[in-house]
Structure formats: structure tokens, C-alpha cells
Design brief:
Elements: H1 2-26, E1 30-35, H2 39-53, E2 56-61, H3 64-74, E3 82-86, H4 88-96, E4 100-101, H5 106-111, E5 124-136, E6 160-163, H6 168-195, E7 199-201, H7 204-212, E8 218-222, H8 223-232, E9 238-241, E10 251-260, H9 266-276, H10 279-287, E11 292-293, H11 302-308, H12 321-324, H13 326-335
This protein binds fe (ii) ion.
Length: about 350
């Protein structure tokens, strides 16, 4: 009668040992992400990563400024292994605020062009966001358009819409011009826009609606905003033109990621960034927001090709300029009266 109960006792002990061992072994098979990108844009790619590697991804989403403050406040106690955000200006700032750590990975260097990652390896681009010229299909012929500079031509007087200079997208665009063209030429470009008395809109989406409604004829937006309109209505009366194709190329920015300074799961975070920039995951990740792949071997999604062609010439200046020259860009825009 006693023998079975000893067996039962031993079995319980054995089970407890197995549970505790497996907890120890698998405790590291996790990666925690703070993301300024919303859940529906990141989760499908995270799920694919977990299916392939067995590493679970826990994430928290929020506004980039709040996530950055949180990382600073948490310091070495943070649970975050990785930060995902949009705009190189934001990634540059996170790095300067000391919440990221440099990570060298041969795979990342192969998969991501050097202009789309931090020269000091603190962050890496994951998708490309092109900011280009848009125009009314009803009132403008594409042959009338060519460059950002040309939007300062008097033929666009009273016909130009711009998003507010407060948005980081415009700060980054002007910052990269400063790096590439210097203050004199950049001042001439932005000054030309201001001479045309642009209507200032709060958002890229409202700018597109203003063109569609006939309030202005040309403007500058990130292409995925036009993609969203076209996905709803293929007859949306606004089209895009790839800017500066005969010289420096269209302004591009990124969404990207970096490993946090106090990451507990550093290797898993690197694996996740490698996965997100891999051939396998790029379309899944980029097309979710109608953005372009950062990995040059990956083609844009079929709908982007159908709308705007197979490729465009992108500006090759390192996107870190968005951060390096941001203060100067803000000053320049304010001095020229760009609200
Ligand atoms: Fe956006």
C-alpha cells in the first residue's frame, strides 16, 4: 500500500525538477520590444519570427517621446531589449540620449544599405519612407513638375500646400538638405516655397484632401498616405511624382530599430532585427504600411509597383543627417516664416 505513494511523491518531485529546469532553459527565449509603431503594423512580422525561432516577442506600444522618456527613467531596470520607431531623427535622438547600444552584425550590414543605418551601429533602418511631390491629376500635368526646388517657382504661387514645419518628417527633410546642399541652397529652396504663400496643413492626409478638394494643386507627402487613399478609392484625383530623379534623388527616411543599452536579451533582439530586415520578412513588415523595403534584394509590393513603378532614385545621404542637422533645420524654417 505504501509503495505507490512513494512513487507518487517521487513523480511529483521529478515533475517539479523538470518544470524548474525548463523555466531556466527557456527563460532567455524571449525579446521585449518598445514600439512607436502600432500593433497591427508589427505583430504579423513578430508572429512569423516566433514561428521560425521559438523566441516569443513581448511588446508595448506608445508615442515615441513617451517611450524614450520611459527608457531613460527605467535605466538599467528596463525590460525593453529593443526600441522600434519611425524617422531617423527619432532614432538619432534615442541614441544621443544614451538608451541604445551599438550592435555590429554582418547580416545587418549586408541586408541594410549603409545610408539607411547609423554609422555607429546604434540603430538600423527596417523600412523606407519616401517623401515626395504630389499633385492634382485634374489641374497639373506631371511634366510641369521636377524637383523640390521647382516648387519655389512662381508658377506655384498660391497653389502649394505644405504640412506644418513642426512635424518631424519636414524637419528631417530639411535637415538632410542642409547636410547635402549646405545652408545657402537650402535657404533658397525653403524660401522659394514660402514666397509661394503655401497653405499649411496639420497632416499629410489633410494635405492630400486639400489637393483633392481643389484648395491647392501641389504638395509634399510620404507616399504611404497617398497609398491609403488609393486603397480606398482608385480614382482619388491625386498622383505622385518622384522628385529630383535627375540629380540627388527623392528624400527618404526610415522606420527602424535599435538594441537598448540595458537589454537583457541582447542576442534575441539582434536576431529579431536581422529577421525583420531579411528577404523573408521585409514585404510582410514594409507593405503593412505601404512602405518600401530597406533590403535592396526585396522588391516593393505589387500594388506599389502598379501605382508608382518598379523603382525610384532615392537620396543617398545617410539618414543620420535627419538628427544631426535637425536643430539647424528648425531654426532655418522659423527664420523663413515656415510655421
Ligand atoms: Fe506617418
Amino acid at each position: 500500500m505504501r509503495k505507490p505513494s512513494i512513487n507518487k511523491f517521487m513523480r511529483t518531485i521529478l515533475t517539479l525538477v523538470i518544470i524548474s529546469l525548463s523555466t531556466t532553459i527557456f527563460a532567455g527565449e524571449n525579446v521585449n520590444v518598445y514600439s512607436a509603431r502600432i500593433e497591427k503594423l508589427i505583430k504579423p512580422a513578430f508572429d512569423a519570427f516566433t514561428r521560425q525561432t521559438g523566441i516569443t516577442v513581448t511588446f508595448l506600444t506608445g508615442k515615441e517621446a513617451i517611450l524614450l522618456e520611459r527608457l531613460k527613467a527605467e535605466g538599467q531596470h528596463t525590460k525593453a531589449d529593443m526600441l522600434i520607431t519611425v524617422d531617423a531623427g527619432n532614432l538619432w535622438l534615442a541614441s544621443r540620449e544614451g538608451v541604445l547600444q551599438p550592435v555590429y552584425s554582418k547580416t545587418l550590414h549586408q541586408q541594410i544599405p549603409s545610408s539607411l543605418r547609423d554609422p555607429d551601429n546604434n540603430w538600423y533602418g527596417l523600412t523606407v519612407r519616401a517623401r515626395t511631390i504630389v499633385y492634382s491629376k485634374e489641374r497639373v500635368n506631371s511634366s510641369e513638375l521636377s524637383t523640390y526646388e521647382d516648387l519655389g517657382n512662381s508658377k506655384w504661387n498660391g497653389r502649394l500646400c505644405l504640412r506644418t514645419s513642426k512635424k518631424v518628417y519636414n524637419k528631417s527633410m530639411v535637415a538632410t538638405m542642409l547636410k547635402e546642399l549646405g545652408p545657402h541652397k537650402t535657404e533658397k529652396i525653403v524660401g522659394g516655397w514660402m514666397d509661394n504663400k503655401p497653405r499649411i496643413l496639420p497632416k499629410d492626409s489633410s494635405l492630400l484632401k486639400a489637393i483633392a478638394a481643389g484648395k491647392c494643386d501641389v504638395g509634399i507627402v510620404n507616399t504611404y498616405y497617398l497609398g491609403r487613399e488609393l486603397a480606398k478609392n482608385t480614382n482619388f484625383p491625386v498622383s505622385l511624382l518622384w522628385a529630383n530623379q535627375n540629380d540627388r534623388g527623392v528624400h527618404v527616411n526610415i522606420s527602424g530599430a535599435g538594441v537598448t543599452k540595458y537589454a537583457k536579451n541582447r542576442e534575441n533582439a539582434i536576431k529579431l532585427i536581422e529577421f525583420l530586415s531579411s528577404e523573408e520578412a521585409q514585404n510582410l513588415f514594409a507593405d503593412n504600411n505601404m512602405e518600401y523595403p530597406v533590403n535592396p534584394v526585396v522588391k516593393p509590393s505589387p500594388r506599389l509597383i502598379q501605382w508608382w513603378g518598379p523603382s525610384f532614385k532615392a537620396d543617398s545621404v545617410n539618414v543620420a543627417a535627419a538628427g544631426e542637422y535637425q536643430k539647424q533645420a528648425v531654426k532655418l524654417m522659423a527664420a523663413l516664416g515656415y510655421r
